[in-house]
Amino acid sequence: xxxxxxxxxxxxxxxxxxxxxxxxxxxxxxxxxxxxxxxxxxxxxxxxxxxxxxxxxxxxxxxxxxxxxxxxxxxxxxxxxxxxxxxxxxxxxxxxxxxxxxxxxxxxxxxxxxxxxxxxxxxxxxxxxxxxxxxxxxxxxxxxxxxxxxxxxxxxxxxxxxxxxxxxxxxxxxxxxxxxxxxxxxxxxxxxxxxxxxxxxxxxxxxxxxxxxxxxxxxxxxxxxxxxxxxxxxxxxxxxxxxxxxxxxxxxxxxxxxxxxxxxxxxxxxxxxxxxxxxxxxxxxxxxxxxxxxxxxxxxxxxxxxxxxxxxxxxxxxxxxxxxxxxxxxxxxxxxxxxxxxxxxxxxxxxxxxxxxxxxxxxxxxxxxxxxxxxxxxxxxxxxxxxxxxxxxxxxxxxxxxxxxxxxxxxxxxxxxxxxxxxxxxxxxxxxxxxxxxxxxxxxxxxxxxxxxxxxxxxxxxxxxxxxxxxxxxxxxxxxxxxxxxxxxxxxxxxxxxxxxxxxxxxxxxxxxxxxxxxxxxxxxxxxxxxxxxxxxxxxxxxxxxxxxxxxxxxxxxxxxxxxxxxxxxxxxxxxxxxxxxxxxxxxxxxxxxxxxxxxxxxxxxxxxxxxxxxxxxxxxxxxxxxxxxxxxxxxxxxxxxxxxxxxxxxxxxxxxxxxxxxxxxxxxxxxxxxxxxxxxxxxxxxxxxxxxxxxxxxxxxxxxxxxxxxxxxxxxxxxxxxxxxxxxxxxxxxxxxxxxxxxxxxxxxxxxxxxxxxxxxxxxxxxxxxxxxxxxxxxxxxxxxxxxxxxxxxxxxxxxxxxxxxxxxxxxxxxxxxxxxxxxxxxxxxxxxxxxxxxxxxxxxxxxxxxxxxxxxxxxxxxxxxxxxxxxxxxxxxxxxxxxxxxxxxxxxxxxxxxxxxxxxxxxxxxxxxxxxxxxxxxxxxxxxxxxxxxxxxxxxxxxxx
Length: 947
Ligand SMILES: Nc1ncnc2c1ncn2[C@@H]1O[C@H](COP(=O)(O)OP(=O)(O)OP(=O)(O)O)[C@@H](O)[C@H]1O
What we know:
Number of strands: 10
Main location: membrane
Radius of gyration: 38 Å
Membrane topology: Multi-pass membrane protein
Organism: Tieghemiomyces parasiticus
Number of helices: 30
Protein name: ATP-binding cassette sub- B member 6, mitochondrial
Oligomer: single chain
InterPro entries: AAA+_ATPase, ABC1_TM_dom, ABC1_TM_sf, ABC_transporter-like_ATP-bd, ABC_transporter-like_CS, P-loop_NTPase, Type_1_exporter
Bound molecules: adenosine-5'-triphosphate
């Protein structure tokens, strides 16, 4: 069964699911029997021996599970024993690594299950201990009600826990037995409960010893008193050890998998990818490489955003260094075909420190131009939050004072006033809290707008290679999510952080020093539980989100597919795309469910712990009341203060959640920002523009990847002449255009225009005077006028309506436009419903012509036109490009017969050059053969009556 997050899980059969339960039931039964027999009055063994047995229980549990596993051949959690695979052509080392990895998964799973069984056993045993105390005639009658309460409480928890676990697993047994979160959640919950049970056990044990006083036999029970806390320690430490082991073996549980093309696969394929999780050593190497990459990225923060409006001086300086470096090494370094190592580029993983440092710098940069009065208002709000939290903290104290004063009416009135004032303030504070929140949010809209512009510019500034190889929509979407997370985080910082931290400090202080020092451990315990839980659950959620993000990407890419709706229709592949989308969504939904469930469990645990701590506090209050050191008013104080103190603590947990969301989102953002920009503007480039348009290619070599497309190409195009480039498809003709316009940098050699290397000028300056009519025409969903006028976008859409019409006439599209209901103002849509393919091509030609470039590049510009229209357009093109440097790529050779120079490209090199007559004069020449072949083809078509 497919499982994008799972370990090497396999489709569990119903039998496998039963097998999961079998050892648990066996062990639970034996543990219970052992505990009951040991404690039961009929056998009545000594407490000392019993304590030894108790200590042995976890070990027995482990042995039991291991024996069971042996017997069942590793069918622990429907994981198969790693099999020796068919070596075939596979690399042996790789195969060994795979087997090792599977063993690691197996052992970690085993460890997990073993601990889990221990907890179940301890729970049952704990109940048994309390029952045995109840059955024990020596147990003091004073403490019997406590024992009974303990048993009821534990039994209640056990039932709740079992029901919850069953509910959790009911669906999973039907689908997949061991997804990672399902491994985690019940285990963690069992752990939390085990701590509670053992706390109660310690409590009961100590109470029992205390109650039995100096009884001779029970005086020896010190072992019992020691073992119970030891077990508590084990219960706390074991999960930490487990987590450490899990992390160190690095079997890939929740391993961050930043989205790459390879990972962005539909759900069904994703399972196969999980098999490629690196082993510990490999992952270690990956991390070193990643760290190195990170360091490099950090030392080079300027790569992105150089075109962004937020570019600061630091960035600029770095950018300069980078650019000058690029210049000195230009031609040999910049665009070398990628090496194998580069191809297998490891994903960058930023350390938390690096990430937050950079995010803070980014926020600072983006928020810097903030309005001063706005900053003052924000600061005032922030301070107000702290002050109000301080005032609020007096409420329980004054309430207590008021209650205490009721016995002496003279003091009651001032006490009431004090309490009423603070209470009124608190109420007003609660009412205004929303409006203050809104105000902060409004202030932040400036920031988010700036951040969005910044990201937009970053995406625009990326090299062509980035745009052709990745999904812009997904990148933009990720950018948006990052901004939303930053926004949320800033709201928390500005609105709650200071006040709530202050609230915690005040709360703990009042509890511990003003109220009663015995309550200090209680207040600290809560903080401790929060921190522990954060450490255990935190990484899980972070990593879970990495996986979720990949699914987000897959879903995003499915949506991108809709852009290709025409192709989808043509190939009737709707069902295929629906399935792909359904799979991606199903996977996303499942992951969301896991995520939500993990959070729900977190909340439940937090609530349980809170309530237990509250109860403990109440019991302590009652105890002190019996001793006479506390008054009923103190109990009131305790109860009202509790909520106030722990609300901010709960906020800390929320903050942790927000921090993790921020980490994921900002990780995406930094990845995007740090994506290397291959083609950069030199920082010191002076303004420049094409004057004559003389072009020179000198020993140019280039390849998109490892394969060289162009090899040592040299040619020149004198200013004002027309050069045609011909050759078979895929020879690299369009690539020559891309290099001239500097969409890519040459790997070797140089390209100059008017004697200036194209790498030494700003890209905008270079392209401003170029008119490119590409093979694929861009359709803009707007008016025809704008579609043509867009040719002058670089000049601020300066083409007049007359100029647009003139260009359209030359492109032979004017008449067609005038037939449309709104003429040039007709709105075009994305499809060809109101313009045919050939008409769109003519519109694109008009767009190129209106630009009036000094260098015109026509790449198969008329390929979609009929012969007659093509001839007419060609004539017009020849006419209006007269005097400008013109480069033409054409497959139909008669269309370039007039060219001053024809270059024949073959196998990445120019094999022939000259004008039409000269090339036709070369005996056995490539061009001559191409010409004859085309002629023959045409004669055949005429003979066949095709044309
Ligand atoms: N962005 C890219 N990434 C990787 N390879 C590319 C990219 N663009 C083009 N190629 C490859 O480079 C080679 C040359 O492509 P190019 O478009 O320059 O050929 P062409 O001669 O213009 O072809 P045609 O006549 O079919 O338009 C082809 O093999 C193509 O697959």
